[in-house]
Design a protein that fits this description.
Distance between the termini: 53 Å
Number of strands: 0
Shape: flat
Structural class: mainly alpha
Largest sheet: none
Helix content: over 70%
Number of domains: 1
Order of helices and strands: HHH
């Protein structure tokens, strides 16, 4: 029951992420929440969550460097 509920919540977060990708909103946050919920039970989701975390970390570091130059 708990696994089913977490999967349903993850699916809802992914759907909200898709909606917010089309209309203005926090789509990245909903995608990350959905991946986090899936990562509790599925190893493939852990792999993709780690990739997303590393990509967002590198992007924030690059943005900090560019903003520090100005």
């Amino acid at each position: 029951m708990k696994k089913w509920l977490m999967n349903a919540a993850a699916g809802l977060c992914f759907l909200l992420g898709i909606v917010f990708a089309v209309v203005p909103g926090p789509s990245v946050i909903f995608f990350l929440i959905g991946l986090t919920l899936l990562a509790f039970h599925y190893p493939f989701a852990r792999k993709y969550l780690k990739i997303c975390q590393n990509t967002l970390t590198r992007g924030c570091q690059l943005l900090d460097k560019k903003l520090a130059k100005k």
